[in-house]
What we know:
By secondary structure, the chain is mainly α.
Amino acid sequence: METxxxxxxxxxRPAASPSGPTAKPTSSPQKPKxxxxxxxxxxxxxxxxxxxxxxxxxxKRFIFFHxxxxxxEMAEAEIGNFLSSLATDAxxxxxxxxxxxxxxxxxxxxxxxxxxxxxxxxVRAKRPSRLPVVLTKEEVQRLLNSIxxxxxxxxxxxxxxxxxxxxxxRLRVKDIDFSRNQIVVRAGKGNKDRYxxxxxxxxxxxxxxxxAVKRQHEEDLKQGQGRVSxxxxxxxxxxxxxKEWGWQWVFPATSHYDDRVTGERRRHHLHESVLQKAVKDxxxxxxxxxPAGPHTLRHSFATHVLEDGYDIRTVQELLGHNDVSTTMxxxxxxNRGGRGVRSPLDGLAVGVAxxxx
Length: 357
């Protein structure tokens, strides 16, 4: 006869209920602050640092305008009041008001996940029809002859290749093709790449400049430095690329900085204010009354290329414009049509003595 199984009662103390007195409170992770969420959303979408800085500034201004109320508690009416105040009280331009609107729409749509409908009653700033400030070829020649050193070479590229200011500052050695007389603009406005010309008048000075930069880079490597920052995740994908010659800045800064993440001593590109100050000082020195800055050289490039009879579609590609209507602003000069493209810099009597090591 099979012996019956005996099941003894479980005399262990039952586990405490999570809601009981012995339960430890579970700590939920702290939600990031609003502006940190905005920064994370901008960086996730690979928007430029300048866009991040501008959007953060407008969101702060919007919050303080409404006495530090949280944006989640506000909607179309508060946005409309803020935008109208910018136009009527602050007298901002139409582009500035549109930038503020884009910043707030990004906040509500991408961060707060709150749809914003029609914003009624907004006083819109009027967009005036303005022509760009353009220097004559004689004024460009006087201006360039009054600049020296590295800013002179940068100004030569702005006028000879139609570069934007930051596109010139962020040039890397690998992006200049001397054999084809081309410059590759990487991640320009709108995060787009494009080709433009390498002017013949700047080729030889640029070669000598890069020889000096390479000697400086070799000295940095001997001291255990010589690393530059890389875009996006390339630094993680190619850990040693930051020390390679091809990734170095064409116009490096004169001093190093400490990277906040790695703690390494690195060299940044030359700050844009160096060229801005050099152009301003040269303009005042030669007595040019027009309010010309570095971007004026880009306007002058486009206008003079059209004056020489080149096709507007070609100029559009060289400038990196999305729409030809943007390039049409330069058609206040006669477009006679032409074959091939030559940099307007090549027709000027600009000496190379301004570039001193």
